[in-house]
Amino acid sequence: MGGPEDDRFDGEAADLEAGIWVRGVDYMSGWRDAREAATELGEALRLVGVETAGVRLRAASGTDGSGVVRLELSAASAREVAMLARVTAARLGRAS
Fold it and tell me: Cβ–Cβ contacts within 10 Å for residue 4, how many?
């Protein structure tokens, strides 16, 4: 799984070509927030046993400067996450 300590985590470098930059918008603050959120998500996925090789997290900033976390999953990891979400929803009484 991509995390800040390895080379699969893309949160350490801002993608300067990803969009139009607007003067006065604090993109770095949003990116830092997204980087922290990506780390939290990566740790949570590891804790529940999601296969780390099939997960990639990327921190970015939205056009308004808000943090955005992009999650890329292999098909197997997507199925694991879906199963875990369904189990959690059932435990919380939110399954329909």
Answer: 14
Answer yes or no: are the C-beta atoms of 37 and 69 closer than 8 Å. yes
Angstrom CA distances, 42 to 6, 17, 39, 70, 84, stand at 12, 25, 5, 12, 14
- Phi, psi of 88, rounded to the nearest 5 degrees: -65, -45
CB-based contact 29:66 (threshold 8 Å): no
Question: Measuring CA to CA, which residue among 74, 73, 95, 71 is closest to residue 85?
Answer: 95
Q: What is the pLDDT of residue 12?
A: 45
* Ranges of each domain in the chain: 10-91
pLDDT tens digit sequence for 78-95: 999 999 999 999 999 887
Amino acid at site 74:
S
Beta-ladder partners of 55: 73
For the whole model, what pTM was predicted? 0.73
